[in-house]
Amino acid sequence: MDKGSPIIRLAVFGSPVAHSLSPRIHDQFARQLGLRVDYQAIEATAEVFPQRVRELHESGGRGCNVTVPLKQIAWTLAANCSDNAARARAANTLVFDGGIFADNTDGQGLVNDLLTQPGTCLEGARICLLGAGGAAAGILAALLREQPERIVIANRTPDRAHELARRHDDLGYLETCAFMDVGAQGPFDLVINATSQGHQGTAPRLPAGCLAPGGLCYDLNYGAAAAPFRQACAGAGLRYADGLGMLVAQAALSFELWTGKQPDVKPVLQALQG
Question: Are residues 205 and 114 part of one domain?
């Protein structure tokens, strides 16, 4: 590491944010690449978040990550944004380069991690996306660009699923249904849990036969919030993966936006899995 090189100042904003793994992840990325990075976790409510971002920007920061519940506000702060952020109407990454540029690396991070899962191929796949909120909006465009055979968005409120599909219909055909109808739509090669139920200690119900042989249930959650869906899948004998790999993969994309350097996600993920 070149101790004479300037320190790259970064942060993650959220509420709560003290539990965030992002400082640890980005510290390991920086060590890999010989960069001096100061990455802080900053608690911020919706009311103070815009001011905190301006302070980081004006003090020479390079950019920041944004987590719940601030991603939609982050998108509105940017003068320019990527197509992914525009479609999601939310940003998990802000880049300070004169102005503020917003991106959403969640979807490509998910795709990158899915492609490391044994036997998982997205091209021509039959996918069920459980949930139509912010998490689903952040990943849908990236999934569609992989050219699956079909994607069905299942949501408790069908109107919300229809609206999400409408925002993406130029990228591919999308179907929608209620949660109770998932079983009739299957089997699927990939079922993605994009609901927030894990944070309440519950999980979406998986009807018998919804997953094709060799298929994968993937949870965008990780840690304690992933436990309910993991247990439901284990009880049904379904192959499961949590979202820790997605977390590291999306972080690597953010890091590359800020530094122009691409870190290796594998050793970082292995360290987090312990």
Answer: yes
Is 60 exceeded by the pLDDT of residue 1?
A: no
pLDDT value at residue 2: 59
Q: 3, 71, 261, 266: which is the annotated catalytic residue?
A: 71
In a domain, 90, yes or no: yes
Closest residue by Cα to residue 109 from 130, 132, 129, 93: 93
Q: Are 179 and 205 in contact (CB under 8 A)?
A: yes
Confirm whether 114 is domain-assigned: yes
Token pair of 28, please?
């390991």
Pull the structure tokens for residue 167: 């925002």
Which strand ranges, in their side-by-side order, compose the sheet holding 126-130? 174-178, 150-155, 126-130, 188-193, 211-219, 240-241
pLDDT in tens, 137-153: 999 999 999 999 999 99
- Label residue 5 by pLDDT band (50, 70, 90): confident
Read off the pLDDT of residues 75-87 as tens digits, 9 standing for 90 and up.
Answer: 999 999 999 999 9
Answer for the pair 128, 190: CB distance below 8 angstroms, yes or no: yes
Percent of the chain with pLDDT over 90: 94
260, exposed or middle or buried, with CB in 10 Å at 0-12, 13-18, 19+?
A: exposed
- If asked whether residues 32 and 93 sit together in one domain, one would say yes
Into how many domains does the chain fold? 2
Beta-carbon count within 10 A of 157 CB = 12
Verify whether residue 71 is a known catalytic residue: yes
The model carries a pTM of: 0.96
CB 146 within 8 Å of CB 173: no
